[in-house]
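Open question from group meeting: does this chain pack into something compact, or does most of it stay loose? Before anyone orders reagents, we agreed to write out a predicted structure and look at it together. Recording both the input and the output here so the notebook holds the full record.
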Amino acid sequence: MSSPSVIKLRYSHPDVPRPYRIPWGKFGLWAAGILTTAWCALTTIAIIYPGIGTAHPDDSLPEGFEHQRLEYTLSQVIPLVVMILIGLLFYALGAPTRRQARADAASSQAVPDEATSSETPASETPSSDTTSG
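Structure tokens returned:
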């Protein structure tokens, strides 16, 4: 997830100072992002399903799992799913904090607008002491 995030942040927040830059500009950024994401995906698939692409993938199972493809796959997928669920739980629990940060950012941007409206001369503001009659 960090490689696609680098690409997104480079476009959404280009002026933020960073401790390093990827060489070769945007081409290098995209090349590094695609290569690292693809490598992570391949590694994940190889861990979950060892021997993928071979003539006899069951021969690639670790010791103790000979001819037990389902058991091995479950031993890899269940912890992966648990970790994903923990991540989603923390994301959901962080929603109020993110909402508050957005509200604080919006209110801090609204404050300059209020300051300019309070500086309007009294002659331009409608008077509330007029009575209809």
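Observations to bring back to the group:
The chain has two domains: 1-48, 64-109.
The two ends are 69 Å apart (CA to CA).
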